[in-house]
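Hi C.,

You asked whether I'd gotten around to modeling the 121-residue construct. I have! Everything is below, sequence then structure, no commentary in between.
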Amino acid sequence: MKKTFLLLPLLALLLSSCSGEDRSGEQPFAPKVQTLGAEPAVGDSVRMTGEVLESLNSTITQRGFVYWNDTLKETRLAVLDEAALFRAFTDSLGDGTYSYAAFATNGIGTSYGDTLTFEKR
């Protein structure tokens, strides 16, 4: 009789936890990001645009851009906007050719879009 009382709660727990849908193959992945473009903005700044294409099973925790040139070390610019399409403005750039890439970070890792260039004159 005591064994029956122990098995009933265990059986109820097992039956209630089965969903019928097998999700065991799903994994979180690092996000997919696209660098879209850059254009001159006010004064010495440039507006860069990027997009998070997907972030399967993991929330985006940060997004933004990295940019650099032959005299400027890599600068990381985080964006507070949580939309898939995001923009950021550089600050006080000198003339020259700059390389840049969009990035996004989730719980799995950081991914970068293609590296593009823009001219600041």
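If it helps when you're writing up: The chain has a mean pLDDT of 85.

Thanks,
B.
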